[in-house]
Amino acid sequence: MPKDNISPSFVDMNNLEMSDQVRPLFDKVVKHVKENVDPISDEFYALAEQNENRWHLNERQLELLEGAKNKAKESGLWNFFLPNAETGEGLSNLDYAYIAAELGKNPLASETLNCSAPDTGNMEVLERVGTPEQKEKWLKPLLNGEIRSCYGMTEPGVASSDAKNISTSAKLVGDEWVINGEKYYISGAGDSRCKIMICMVKTNPDAEPFRQQSQILIPLDTPGVDIVQPMTVFGQDEAPKGHMHIRMTNVKVPRNNVLWGEGKGFEISQVRLGPGRIHHCMRSIGQAEKALDLLINRGLSRKAFGKNIINLGKNMETISRSRIEIEAMRLMVLKAAKAMDVLGNKEARVWISMVKAMVPEKACKIIDDAIQIHGATGVSQWSPLPGMYVKQRILRLADGPDEVHHHVVARAEVTAYELSNVRKMGSK
């Protein structure tokens, strides 16, 4: 194609370089993780085994975590995830993609920079559509890393992949919303530092389908909010954050706790879920990188049948395929991030769905291959690989299952074909 015929947007979409201004910041993040996060990680997780209350961090854990957070703040490494924010934080989605991939290599790293889910998505919602009062009460302490939050969408009684099915009700009685219903697998709700939930509720069952839902701020200490139990993931409760089953019985919150206005639930989801989905995928690349390093280290450090096990069977091919998949994932995530920067979150939806359908599945496979080369150790408490696998497997369900995202991509592709005079094949 002649250069003159290439649109600016096409050029922008394919420029996936990290910006010059962020390169020094990226180097500082790598240094922070290496010097301030990696050294505390083993002690942090070992201390958890001593906790009488599994849902509370002990004083030493908090000391370690706050120490790393303070060092991050002092270095200017804080709240990177919020592009174009009025509050001044944030990088472009493309630049943040490079940093998030590094953060994904250590489960503690994101929190030390105040860039962990589900807080990031909740902060973005509050920053974009919250009232001044809502921002003062909830966004400010979240941005400061003083509290944690959760997001209530999934329900046990309906297929929540179709958000129109959400049945938790919120009825306006005077100046209060009265909320009844159940949510489950609410990530982070078990953490004692979690103070606020953004909850998807049905406020008007008689409205058109996409205007029935609203999102409401519910403090977790509100009377009637009952954390029933932690849901397990492959038999583990993942304390202290957990994934909670929450029952709400006549929960009353002020009328002004609704976000953006009644009937805006689906619009808010697009604000929240697009960035959230891609942030997960960014971190997944870091997990895949770590798994590959663990695979290679194991293969070089163990011998069988007179050879390093890295040279047995198809292990070298496995390494090659893992590296190829990681680079393919990285390019796709960078392209999706750039689409969000250039086109906006709504228009970039198909790109976001592409990476959400692709990356967790590929990361699972790479981690599984690393488990295999470790043998029995790979599924034991002596290895981080089981936890890494679980988190990636969860991602194939979180923020929309694989099937939903494949449907989004396929529907867009079929539409593009039908509208194209170039691609469409004549009838025979």
Task: Considering the chains and any ligands shown, give keywords for the structure.
single chain; 428 residues; alpha+beta; Butyryl-Coa Dehydrogenase, subunit A, domain 1; Butyryl-CoA Dehydrogenase, subunit A, domain 2; Butyryl-CoA Dehydrogenase, subunit A, domain 3; 4-stranded antiparallel beta sheet
Show the helix and strand layout.
Blueprint: H1 8-13, H2 23-48, H3 59-74, H4 93-103, H5 109-112, H6 119-129, H7 132-143, E1 148-152, E2 169-173, E3 176-187, E4 194-202, E5 213-219, E6 225-231, E7 243-254, H8 265-301, E8 303-304, E9 307-308, H9 315-343, H10 349-374, H11 385-395, H12 402-419
Parallel strand pairs: 1-4
Antiparallel strand pairs: 2-3, 3-7, 4-5, 6-7, 8-9
Helix pairs in contact: 2-3, 2-4, 4-8, 4-9, 6-7, 6-8, 8-9, 8-10, 8-11, 9-10, 10-11, 10-12
Please give a quick description of this structure:
The protein is of the alpha+beta class and 428 residues long.
Number of domain units: 3
Order of helices and strands: HHHHHHHEEEEEEEHEEHHHH
Assembly classification: single chain
The secondary-structure class comes to alpha+beta
| CATH homologous superfamily assignment of the largest domain | Butyryl-CoA Dehydrogenase, subunit A, domain 3
Strand content: 5-15%
Stretches with pLDDT under 50, minimum 5 residues: none
Name of the level-1 CATH class of the largest domain? Mainly Alpha
**Count of distinct strands:** 9
What does this structure look like?
It is a single chain. This protein is α+β, with helices and mostly antiparallel strands and 428 residues long. It is 48% helix and 14% strand. The protein has 12 helices and 9 strands. The strands form 3 sheets. Strands 2-3-7-6 form a 4-stranded antiparallel beta sheet, with no helix packed on it. Strands 1-4-5 form a 3-stranded mixed beta sheet, covered by helices on one side. A two-stranded antiparallel ribbon has the order 8-9. Helix 8 (265-301) packs antiparallel against helix 11 and helix 9 packs antiparallel against helix 10.
